[in-house]
Queue: 2 jobs
Job 1
Amino acid sequence: MSAPFLLAPMAELSHRALRELIEEFGGCDEYFTEMISAAALFGGGPFEKWYMDGGPCPEKLVYQLLGSDIEQIVKAAALLDTLECAGIDLNMGCSAPLIRKAGAGVAWMASIDRAGDLVKEVRKVVKRRLSVKMRTGFTDDFAYLVRFCRRLEAEGVDLIILHPRTAREKFKRSARWSYIAALRQELQIPVAGNGDITSAEGLITLAGGGETGPCDAVMVGRAAVRQPWIFAQAKRIGSREWPEKVTDTIIKETGLRFLELLARWQPPEFHISRARRFFSYFCDNLKWGTHLQNLLNREETLSGMERVWQEYFNSE
């Protein structure tokens, strides 16, 4: 039986419009939101309601929290836990320099005690599943990773999601999927894997265990933006329910549908940045994708982007 499929939390990408698009293709087992700032959640900002939008499937949604202050994170987790969702996730993996320097994201992995204290306090207020998404740490030290995860497990974490790269590697080195299988053997709680999945075939291989051993769930990030159909394709691969080749017609209609969903489910202030971010990946499906992406980036309205998108396919 295949391990569950999860959509990764991605800034400016894992919002409701993308979730709606993926769900229309057949969906995945769980959707993680883009990271929600614990500090901003109570700052009275105008956009927090959009980050908290649980649609289209609140029962499959996991809210991911980012922050550096334990008290703020606990307060935010308590609020989100009152909403319909599958769980709360703590971000201990984001390695963006500004976030790391602020003491958030992967910075939590610098101290086992501090990270353990955070989980202990959050566990007191969260009744739903509590997970942590992380990297291997600041160095390639598997023994430290095991000690770190065992402390989180002891404090009440229900699931570990491992992106097996160090804080400084980004995408320069292949994800060490062998670490995921090895970590799973060291813990009593489930371990999900994330990193370097590029196709439905690769997703199926890792979900089934592959050569590196089993994992309990597989999380997909950038590949699910390039191929919003990846989960559906993996579920139906080898059957006649899904075409062997994704046609230009499918690509064209998917791009147009995304623009419609973006206009419906995101505030106007987010439209252009989210559209540019999506098409920076989705254009990889096309022969002249880089040129098309450059044309799309010149547009300042969704209608302008739609026009450019249509013209590309009409000229083919």
Note: The first helix runs from residue 16 to 25.
Job 2
Amino acid sequence: MKTKRFLWASLLAVLLLSSCASRKSFVYLNDMDMGVEYQFDVKKEAVVHRDDRLSITVSCKNPELAIPFNMQGGNFHIGADGNVVSSDISSGVREKGYRVDVDGNIDFPILGTLHVEGLKVSELTDLIKRRIIEGNYIKDPLVSVEFLNFKYTVLGAVGNNGTFSVNGDRVTLIEAIARAGDLTSKARVDRVAVIRETERGREMYMHDLRSKDVFDSPCYYLQQNDIVYVEPKYKKRDAEDRGWQIATTTLSLASVICSLIWALR
């Protein structure tokens, strides 16, 4: 009887150890203090890059004056409330919005070619307003600019690798990781890289998600086409896998021993 109890206790211990083997051993932002206020940039804006697709709508007090500026990517008419209303054109005829070409330009109705690469949304809005006013087309134009294809990629030790799209143009590094299924147990929380395309080329920024310093990173707010790479624990992977293999083997051996004892009773 004592032998049987010992075997069952050993089996239970193995199961408990196995269930704890994949537990995460890190804590996000563990150097933040309770009740302390941390500053953040509420006006952070996305920057326009090549291959971005933009939705740009112009309106004004006299809506019929704005119609010529809204002829790209759809049909426009004046609604019952006096505002300019868009309706999508038939599928396959033309993609909606303005695509930024390889030179960083868009072809905008009436205004012609505009160089928009590197501009923030507010700067692009001001540029179009200024050009419309300077051309004496509309005195007080209202311009709305939105991203139609804002996307980023998450790779490495996360739950779901892939490319993700978001509505709007504002997503943080932590939000991106959460959307990708969070970090796995084999992720290096201190080695989270963001690879970004800039005018100088591709640049990589490294982050430690255990520290509040991540809030001060230029990559805390992701830009269009950013790549987030979470480095795995390469040096610890073999030891962890070996530990899991030993635990599994022990569990199997204990099961065999129990089966033999019951068979020989």
Note: The chain is about 25% helix and 25% strand.
